[in-house]
Amino acid sequence: MSTSLIAMGVAVFMVINLVVGLAALSLLFGTFETLFGKPKITLLRSSKSGNMFAFGFKWNSAKEPAALDTIRLRLFNPFGTPTQVEVSKPFEAKKSSFATEIDMGPGFIDLLGAKGFDNALIQIEVVSSKDGVVFQFDMKGPKFKKLVFDANQTVAEFVNKNNLDVKKASKSPIDIPIRSFIADTVPGRGPQLKLATNPIFAGEFAGATAGAAPAASGPAVANFKIAKVWIEPGCIVCNACEDIYKDVFEVLADTCIIRPNAPLDDGLRMQEAAEACPVEVIKYTIAG
Ligand code: SF4
């Protein structure tokens, strides 16, 4: 074999090595960019049930500078009811990765309790209203519910794990007490829930149930016994039933159960709990 052929072989070998090396490097950095450079939202476990929504958000703030200050959740539910729900809440502007917990208001319960949720689409938007930047994440309803209810990392744990600046990253911007759903009724304003705990209807429930408010006026409603009570799938762990009838309902981390030997003699209170359930999964039959 001539010297020139050997030299040519070596040159070709080196060029191939160079091309393969460059391709590997580009792939490596591309993968890093894909895996670690993309904005990422993580749904977190909130410290209170009900309307609270906790999340952590990481993005490359050097590459995409923005002061993020709003979280928006949208439900598109063309085959269910309601067909669309949007809840949006502001928070203290964050200029780098952060985690926070926000009271989304009763609209969040409406969103989670929508009929046909399994076929719905959820859009989460993390927004900078000042800079006009929107990070958007789309997912199917079941995935969103699973992420919300299976979340086991708290805001503090997310901040620690990602070495975020605690002061900048997790200060809760809004500390609004959670709505109790039943007890916040403002007498004389808006639609009223006809419940024993609503002072407007205290007279109607007077003397009929231990949970009722003191008598004011109006006829008493006869109480009745329950034969059987059960919870169907779909509980969103809002706590409403346990708040109303603690002897019967026990809300666990991901569902609600009927306590063993639950009393079945206060049908009015059972009815009240069932009517308060936002997803209507409490079912019962009346004795006799
Ligand atoms: S059963 Fe209904 S009221 Fe009770 S926690 Fe579940 S969703 Fe809420």
Explained architecture:
Helices cover 29% and strands 25% of the residues. The protein contains 8 helices and 11 strands. It has helices spanning 3-37, 106-112, 141-150, 155-161, 166-170, 202-205, 240-244, 267-276; strands spanning 40-44, 52-58, 68-76, 84-94, 98-103, 121-128, 133-140, 226-231, 249-251, 256-258, 282-286. The protein has a 4-stranded antiparallel beta sheet. It has a 3-stranded antiparallel beta sheet with strand order 1-2-5. Strands 8-11 form a two-stranded antiparallel sheet. The longest helix has 35 residues, at 3-37. The site of iron/sulfur cluster (SF4) has 16 residues, from α7 and β9.
What is the fold's blueprint, element by element?
Blueprint: H1 3-37, E1 40-44, E2 52-58, E3 68-76, E4 84-94, E5 98-103, H2 106-112, E6 121-128, E7 133-140, H3 141-150, H4 155-161, H5 166-170, H6 202-205, E8 226-231, H7 240-244, E9 249-251, E10 256-258, H8 267-276, E11 282-286
Antiparallel strand pairs: 1-2, 2-5, 3-4, 3-6, 6-7, 8-11, 9-10
Distance between the termini: 105 Å
Q: Tell me the Rg in angstroms.
A: 28 Å
Which ions and ligands are bound to the chains?
Answer: iron/sulfur cluster
Strands, count = 11
Strand order of the largest sheet: 4-3-6-7
Oligomer: single chain
Mean of residue pLDDT?
77
- Secondary-structure-based class equals alpha+beta
Could you tell me the CATH topology label of the largest domain.
Answer: Immunoglobulin-like
Query: What would the principal axes of the Cα set say about the shape?
Result: elongated
Number of helices: 8
Query: What is the level 1 CATH name of the largest domain?
Result: Mainly Beta
Strand/helix succession: HEEEEEHEEHHHHEHEEHE
Sheet with the most strands, sense and barrel status: 4 strands, antiparallel
Q: Unreliable runs, pLDDT <50, ≥5 residues?
A: 28-36, 171-192, 209-217
